Amino acid sequence: MQPKKLLETYIPLVNFIADIIGPHCEVLLHDVADVQNSVIAIRNGYMSGRQLGCPLTDFGLELLEKKAYLNQNAVVNYLSRTASGEKLRSSTYFIKDENNELIGMLCVNILLSPDSTVVKNLADKLMNALLVNNLPANSAVAEEEKVVESLQSSIENVVDSAIEKIIGQYDMPVERMSSDEKIAIVQNLNANGIFKIKGAITKVASTLQTSESTIYRYLSSK
């Protein structure tokens, strides 16, 4: 079956999950063939402000770039955050073709609230039902509980979020960073797949207060 046709078979599941869990659960279907316009189905997008044609998230790009899907079927129960600052409990299921290559992601984001434990347990059962072979779901994406994904509705915000996450690991302003530190930042961003986004080079160069040619040089550094 062609990748697009296979992904289309998951659209009813998007609606099924959203109908069961309710309006405080956002469900999306991503086509990773076009990371800049990856959302091909969505329910309750009001939660993150996303709609059809929105890009893959920073964490989605990282999962794609690092080929996390080769050793697991899903990443479950991690924290995400909307642009307005609301936190959600999220899970991502990898949709793969017959060659075990990733073609899409099914994402479930549940708004954290006093009754979230009940709906989280229900979502867990739904995600586990998708794990039809022996590959496990990874339930620990970080050693400590922290936000690992920013749910953004625009390409520019996805890039900004990815840059902020990496630069935030350094306890100093950009203007005081050494060349080696900037090289490390650029290479980390590259390892997380951010340069799959058109225009990311320009944005990173501006943020690091350097030129685009310098960013390309940093990318080729060992």
UniProtKB/TrEMBL annotation:
Superkingdom field: Bacteria
Residue span(s) of domain YheO-like: 7-112
Residue ranges annotated for the Transcriptional regulator DauR-like HTH domain, each copy included: 159-219
InterPro entries: DauR-like, DauR-like_HTH, YheO
Pfam families reported for this sequence: HTH_22, PAS_6
Name of the protein described by the UniProt record: Transcriptional regulator DauR
Organism: Sporomusa acidovorans (strain ATCC 49682 / DSM 3132 / Mol)
